[in-house]
Write a structure and sequence with these properties.
Layout lengths: L4 H8 L11 E7 L3 E10 L2 E10 L5 E7 L10 H4 L10 H7 L3 E5 L21 H15 L3 H17 L4 E11 L1 H12 L5 E5 L5 H6 L19 H6 L5 E7 L8 H14 L6 E6 L7 H14 L2
Parallel strand pairs: 4-5, 4-6, 6-7, 7-8, 8-9
Antiparallel strand pairs: 1-2, 2-3, 3-5
Helix pairs in contact: 5-6
Length: 305
């Protein structure tokens, strides 16, 4: 329970992020039961762009960071999470805001408003893939790997929530599918301000990917990581946080999710916390369905009760 997390942080090269972070409001829109703010804030001098969804009404609210998917659509990040474009089964932000959650939905580096040659919800720029690859290469050369940047930026989003008076800081959580699930796994293991989390379509070890010739997203390339750890070791570090793994039988990106769950469950049970970790597996492939979407939303709502 936390035995390896500090070593993992050092291996990734993570730098400390302030516990609370202020932001600048760029735009405000009134939505159905909540206000959507376009905000910007800085993490180690990197400008981050996000939507902050604030429910109508007074009092304390649970807060949640939603990390967007990849899907080869770098024009979609926070906008898809907030239901402005893309797949409606990725619009967790708008649905949870309507249910009373304060939601932060940032763009990951090289997505939507954090692309090099384009911004906004428009068609993919033909240079997006190349620029993403170059960002990874430049990061490896300079010690600022995509993994380091993405995890630090996610920690910064938690710090934004942690700085809000309208957020119940004991009810801050995290959610993501696919690429967003990868971020969620690492973030939840390494940031103990998170009290509940769900990772969908992302529980697969590096060794399973290599064995089955499955691609590895560029923000998951951590030099020498497999010399010491794998994804199942990262999930073990999530204990004691309440955690849901969602997977599918034909999903190559969550192929050994059951094995990962069983290993982590042993760690939870060691501390009599077996009820804090769970797995839900569906028949089918990688993409979210209406059934999976509803299950995740209901699980998140139950997690803060």
């Amino acid at each position: 329970m936390g035995a390896n997390s500090e070593k993992m942080k050092k291996l990734i090269g993570l730098e400390p992020v302030n516990n609370k972070i202020d932001y600048e409001i760029l735009e405000i829109s009134q939505c159905n039961g909540y206000k959507r703010e376009l905000i910007q804030y800085f993490i180690h001098e990197r400008k981050n762009i996000a939507y902050l969804l604030l429910p109508d009404g007074e009092g304390k609210h649970p807060g949640i960071l939603i990390n967007h998917q990849h899907n080869g659509e770098r024009n979609l990040g926070k906008g898809e999470v907030c239901g402005l474009a893309g797949n409606p089964f990725q619009s967790f932000g708008s649905v949870l805001a309507e249910r009373g959650f304060v939601v932060i939905a940032p763009d990951s580096l090289c997505f939507e408003d954090r692309r090099v040659n384009a911004s906004g919800i428009i068609e993919n720029d033909e240079d997006d893939d190349w620029q993403h690859f170059l960002t990874m290469c430049y990061g490896i050369l300079t010690g600022q790997t995509l993994a380091k940047v993405v995890i630090e930026d996610a920690m910064g989003a938690i710090s934004v929530l942690n700085g809000l008076d309208c957020v119940d800081h004991k009810k801050i959580g995290c959610l993501g599918h696919s690429y967003g699930g990868n971020t969620t796994i690492f973030l939840t293991a390494l940031d103990k301000r998170i009290h509940y989390a769900c990772a969908s379509g992302s529980a697969v070890t590096f060794r399973n990917r290599i064995k089955n010739n499955v691609g590895i997203e560029m923000a998951s390339v951590i030099p020498n990581f497999m010399k010491y750890y794998d994804i199942d070791d990262v999930v073990c570090e999530i204990c004691p946080t309440k955690f849901l793994i969602l997977s599918a039988t034909e999903d190559k990106y969550s192929k050994d999710a059951i094995d990962i769950y069983k290993k982590a469950e042993k760690v939870y049970e060691k501390y009599n916390l077996g009820q804090q970790i769970s797995i839900k597996q569906y028949e089918g492939g990688h993409e979210l369905t209406s059934e999976r979407f509803k299950y995740i939303v209901n699980w998140i709502i139950d997690a803060v009760k």
